Amino acid sequence: MKKVIGLTGGIASGKSTIVDFLISKGYAVIDADKVVHELQQPGGKLNEMIRREFGSDYFDGQGRLLRKKLGQLVFSDEASRQKLGSLQNGVIREELYLRKAHEIDQLPENGVLFMDIPLLIEQDYDGFDEVWLIAVSPDEQIHRIVERDHLTVQEAKDRINAQMPFEQKKKKATHVIDSSGTIQETQEFVEKLLALLY
Ligand SMILES: CC(C)(COP(=O)(O)OP(=O)(O)OC[C@H]1O[C@@H](n2cnc3c(N)ncnc32)[C@H](O)[C@@H]1O)[C@@H](O)C(=O)NCCC(=O)NCCS
Ligand SMILES: Nc1ncnc2c1ncn2[C@@H]1O[C@H](COP(=O)(O)OP(=O)(O)OP(=O)(O)O)[C@@H](O)[C@H]1O
């Protein structure tokens, strides 16, 4: 039987790192952040919608969305975040379900599709055989965000606070992946979960 696994976790919990590992193992993966970025680029379904709502200050001369700039606005102002959500969420959801149907069609019998969706639990995405939730402490998230994205501690906290706390998300997860150790340790644990799938 084909399976679809949802992969989720807070910001900088290690989703992309696990996705890279799954791809290296030959698994099919839909990465929601990448899909959103495609939809936001010139010609994408969201590009013009965002320009109309937020103005051309958020675009460069080639019509590309200045994501960092829009991120600074929406993660420091809840009303703007909600406005962006009302604008984008329906289009994103529709695109993700379309791609999911397409990828499932391509899967071999007993194949597994992963969907990395950061807001999977917050936004009630469904239709998964399992949901894998990555665990990381807020302190570690702040540390990683500051290191990786060169944001201030306050900016890191704003992003974390825009998401549902781990304890609440845990209720909806079938498996929890601890990412507080080394990347290798996380990968070894993921290997164990993969082995349980068959
Ligand atoms: C605000 C935007 C332009 C910032 O772009 P940027 O390149 O700086 O960040 P990126 O898209 O890579 O997201 C990084 C992480 O931020 C978190 N995040 C993104 N959007 C949100 C949000 N609305 N609420 C809470 N956390 C969010 C996620 O953990 C995500 O993995 C962009 O994140 C966006 O359009 N977000 C809303 C779309 C969305 O819901 N994305 C999540 C996919 S389900
Ligand atoms: N055990 C671990 N497992 C996964 N990532 C780790 C681990 N230890 C450190 N990291 C680091 O944490 C940082 C964040 O990882 P990654 O970019 O994969 O997170 P993410 O959840 O995809 O982030 P975002 O929500 O911003 O898209 C990276 O710099 C990664 O190298």
Strand residue content: 5-15%
Helices and strands, in order, run as EHEHHHHEEHHHEH
How are strands sequenced across the largest beta sheet?
Answer: 2-3-1-4-5
Radius of gyration: 17 Å
- Inertia-based shape: globular
Distance between the first and last residues' Cα: 10 Å
Discrete helix count: 9
Helix content: 40-55%
CATH superfamily: P-loop containing nucleotide triphosphate hydrolases
- Give the domain tally: 1
- Uncertain runs with pLDDT below 50, 5 residues or more? none
Look at the structure and give the mean pLDDT. Answer: 97
Structural class: alpha/beta
Cofactors, ions, other ligands: dephospho coenzyme A, adenosine-5'-triphosphate
The CATH architecture can be named as 3-Layer(aba) Sandwich
CATH topology: Rossmann fold
Enzyme class: transferase
GO cellular component, one term: cytoplasm
EC number: 2.7.1.24
Function: Catalyzes the phosphorylation of the 3'-hydroxyl group of dephosphocoenzyme A to form coenzyme A.
Feature tags:
198 residues; alpha/beta; Rossmann fold; 5-stranded parallel β-sheet; 53% helix; 13% strand; binds dephospho coenzyme A; binds adenosine-5'-triphosphate
Protein architecture, described:
The chain is of the alpha/beta class and 198 residues long. The chain has one domain: P-loop containing nucleotide triphosphate hydrolases (Rossmann fold, 3-Layer(aba) Sandwich), CATH 3.40.50. Helix content is 53%, strand content 13%. It contains nine helices and five strands. It binds dephospho coenzyme A and adenosine-5'-triphosphate. It holds the Pfam family CoaE. It is an enzyme of class 2 (transferase).
